[in-house]
Input
Amino acid sequence: MRFFADKAEVKLVVASGVLRVSVRPQPTLASLLSAALILAFASMSLASWRQSALLVRIGEIGVVVGAVFAWLQQLSGSEEEIEIGERGIRITREIFGCHRVPIEQCSELDIQIDKEDSRRLQFRLGKWRTVEFGNYMSKQQAGEVLDTLADELPNLARILLPSPTLQSTGLRLT
Output
């Protein structure tokens, strides 16, 4: 069992031609370790505060505040809602707000491939931009999202999923 792996509760609902995915992170042992590392870094920074240059102080403050913010986000279980439908992809986060993209600009929805042990989902927005979402999901949960999309909404799957993903699900779209 992986004690340090991110965990999330993922709910999938297909209704009215829209796939709704709800991702809620759950605290893990890694959360406690993160808190300990944040405290250790903050105490070391505080110990050398007088000797540090102003730019270093600003950087240390930024690192500590960012780390505390990310830690609190995971502990609070802030939910991420993903809606994939004919009108587009809408990603709503309780903390960072809403991001809506028209379906015509989306392509290549898949599990993040550029990192070795990635578990997020990603899609290409236009030609150059990649949008990542579904933090804290396991690779199996991300695969279930793609399989549900291919099974329940084949017209959207034809637009969004790259052909190898469609072939791996056993679905043939012609």
Notes: The first strand starts at residue 7 and ends at 15. The helical segments are 29-47, 54-76, 139-152, 154-160, 163-169. Strands lie at 7-15, 18-26, 80-85, 88-93, 97-102, 106-111, 121-125, 129-133. The longest helix spans residues 54-76.
